[in-house]
């Protein structure tokens, strides 16, 4: 069963309901990139008339995590995945529809192969850039992922 945007959105509903309720959705997924989106609404606002930072973090993390899940499925192995660290930079108020793009799919396959070869966990950083409807960057999030082949 191939991992697709619609299957990930169903996964959100059942396994990450807070992200689903806040409006986080996967728009596009392939081997190299993932696009997620979330619209500023009452349910995900902060007191400053913009999107709460944690909602942006959910959408950004999903754009990186979906790529990790995609590559794990492609490997055919049982591999654990975990966010080990994250950093965020917010440059503008997030209003309207915010789109997060991660183009770091190429980093994952290497780490998975190394974990399979050595049996040890591997870590790597992935970046997601959030832009508003005008194409202006509102945030940049970095996530350090850890992957390890299960015994």
UniProtKB/TrEMBL annotation:
Report which superkingdom the organism of origin falls in.
Bacteria
Any idea what this protein is called?
DUF4442 domain-containing protein
What is the protein's species of origin? Flavobacterium hiemivividum
């Amino acid at each position: 069963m191939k991992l697709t945007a619609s299957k990930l959105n169903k996964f959100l509903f059942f396994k990450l309901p807070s992200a689903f309720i806040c409006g986080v959705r996967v728009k596009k997924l392939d081997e190299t990139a993932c696009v997620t989106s979330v619209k500023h609404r009452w349910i995900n606002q902060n007191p400053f008339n913009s999107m709460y930072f944690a909602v942006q973090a959910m959408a950004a993390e999903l754009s990186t995590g979906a790529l990790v899940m995609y590559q794990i499925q492609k490997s055919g192995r049982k591999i654990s995945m975990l966010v080990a660290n994250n950093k965020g930079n917010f440059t503008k108020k997030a209003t309207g529809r915010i789109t997060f793009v991660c183009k770091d799919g190429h980093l994952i396959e290497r780490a998975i192969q190394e974990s399979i070869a050595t049996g040890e966990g591997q870590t790597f950083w992935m970046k997601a850039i959030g832009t508003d409807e005008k194409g202006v960057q509102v945030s940049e999030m970095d996530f350090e992922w850890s992957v390890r082949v299960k015994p």
